Amino acid sequence: MSETIYLNGKLIPKTEASISPEDRGFNFADGIYEVIKYYGGKPFRYADHMDRLRRSLREIRIDFDDFDQLETVFQTLLEQNGLASQEAGIYLQITRGSHTRIHRFPENIKPTVYATVFPFASKPDQLKNGVKAITAADIRWLRCDIKSISLLPNVLFAQEAEEHGAAETIFIRNGIVTEGTHSSFMAVKDGVVYTHPDSNLILPGITKKVIIEICKTHNIRLVEEGIPASELAGLDEMMIVGTGSEVTPIVQLDDKPVGNGKLGPVTRFIQEKFFEQTQF
Predict the structure, then answer these.
(1) What is the pTM of this model?
(2) pLDDT at 1 over 70
(3) What is the C-alpha R_g of the chain?
(4) Which residues make Cβ contacts (< 8 Å) with residue 184, sequence separation at least 6?
(5) Measured between alpha carbons, how far is residue 101 from residues 33, 79, 114 in Å?
(6) Which DSSP category does 240 fall into?
(7) Same domain, residue pair 148 and 83
(8) pLDDT class for 2, splitting at 50, 70, 90?
(9) 47: domain CATH number?
(10) What 8-state DSSP symbol labels residue 182?
(11) CA–CA separation, 27 and 184 (whole Å)
(12) pLDDT tens digits, residue range 105-136?
């Protein structure tokens, strides 16, 4: 049986889906996306994802306001694809739409809206034992706060991580750590949690937001401040956090151990409190 997807107002078999080669997502990466994780059929921080979606659409001036139907569409996709009781992810992509290729915004254009569902299980081994990461210069554009489908630099550096046996590449811009190719970066020194403040240089992470809330609730000092790359070697704990990464410890960075090379106590505590929130 073919997978069911959502495309421009219809639930159809994926094998029947068709998008114009003149779609601006194809020609210009002129679009945005969101990924939402479902735990046991329930979305995690759905409202936060929708708020970020609205913001990205607004920033690149795509006119889409049909938000009310999305949650029902996503639930139907989960059910029709047999993923309603599992850990699953929804991928949503909205592009400006199809038009003869011109650089400026075309007039009277209708967005292309696509959504699909996929298995999205946690990785218990990585959560427990941690992962290796590498660093690289952040050569991306200056609007990383937009969840754009233009991800070529992220793709190239994710591949570089793979070729080094690592799970993630951590970006450094002007001597300051920003984020990973597909995750936010957080670190711990002397019991204090550090992370880059939201700005145009990083994506406002939903999981990072949850962790900030956890820190405030449990009186863990948190500093939203860029971490100098020169101080990475002296940090006690590091973690990559995100919808897919959840709260994954980094135990090795650029072939050097982080702390004692194991899951640290602050990261472990944050993991526990994070997963308490995913139990609906």
Answers:
(1) 0.96
(2) no
(3) 19
(4) 195, 196, 202, 203, 205, 207, 208, 240, 241, 242
(5) 21, 38, 21
(6) E
(7) no
(8) confident
(9) 3.30.470.10
(10) S
(11) 28
(12) 999 999 999 999 999 999 999 999 999 999 99
